Amino acid sequence: MKKTVLLLIVALSFAACGGKKEVKQVSQESAAYTEAAAMAETIRNAFVGNDRVALQKNSTEQGYRDITASKKMFDQIELSFTPRWFEIEQNQVLLNVSWKSVWTIAGKKTEDRGMAVLVLEGRPLKVSKVLRANPFIYPEQ
Asked: Would the CA dihedral through 124, 70, 132, 139 be positive or negative?
């Protein structure tokens, strides 16, 4: 009798848990955030690696100018992005990132930090503007 009750409890447990698990769909906002964060990282890597082809491919004409317009030649740069806020407005995605940079030019290191807004547009997303404290500009002394 005890074995039968135990077997019945185990069988009911499996029946209750054994059904197909519901797969939740990824929301449009979540997919847009993931794509925007990946694009920010792609742009950051291209900038650090001085890969102008990748910068052009992943930005609009205006975005490319914002990234490279006042670019000073550097020996090395360490640049990190931390996404802080994300908004979708009409046909644009606004990704707020805090950033830190260490620029090395002729052996001299210069550190800087700030908050920037990367404006992304299109399908697939491309950087169209850099607002606020542009992380791609050599810091003023």
From this structure: positive
